[in-house]
Amino acid sequence: MDELISRITAASGLDESLARKAIGIILAFLQKEGPAAEIGQLMAALPGAQELADAEGGAKGGLLGTIGGMMGGGGGVMALGGQLMGAGLSMGQIQSVSKEMFAVGREKAGEDTMGAIVGAIPGLGQFV
C-alpha cells in the first residue's frame, strides 16, 4: 500500500493523508459496484486495501446509494466523484488518482482483472 500511496502523491500532488482517503473511497466504491471475484483479486493484490476501504469508504452511500445502484447505477461514478470532491480533490486530482490506482492495479492484479472491473462499472472507463 505504501507504494500505491507514494505513486499517487507523486502523480496528484496530494498529501499522504488525502491520498489515503481518496484510495479508501475509491476502493469502497469498487467493492460496492464492481464484480465480486475481480474486486477480491484486486484487494488481495494490494495488502492493506481492505483496511483503507473500511476506514475511508465504509458505509457511505447508504440507502440512497443502494436504491440508485438497483435502478441502474443512479449515482455510480458521478456519486464517487462527488465524494472525492467533498474530500477536497479537484477534478484533475481525481483523474490523476484514478489513473495511477488502475495502473498499479494492472501491475499487481493483472490487466484481465482490471479490465473486468472497468467493464462492469458504467462510466468508469473515462477516468482510468
Word description of this protein:
This protein is mainly alpha-helical. It is built from eight helices and no strands. The chain is globular, with a radius of gyration of 13 Å. The chain starts with a helix and ends in an 8-residue tail after the last helix.
CATH class label? Mainly Alpha
SSE order, one letter for each helix or strand:
HHHHHHHH
Q: What class do helices, strands and sheet pairing give?
A: mainly alpha
CATH architecture: Orthogonal Bundle
Oligomeric form: single chain
- What would you call the shape? globular
The amount of helix comes to over 70%
CATH fold-level assignment: Globin-like
Strand percentage: under 5%
Number of strands: 0
State the end-to-end CA separation: 19 Å
Low-confidence stretches: 59-74
Number of domains: 1
Biggest sheet overview: none
Mean pLDDT: 88
Summarize the model shown.
The chain has 128 residues and is mostly helical.
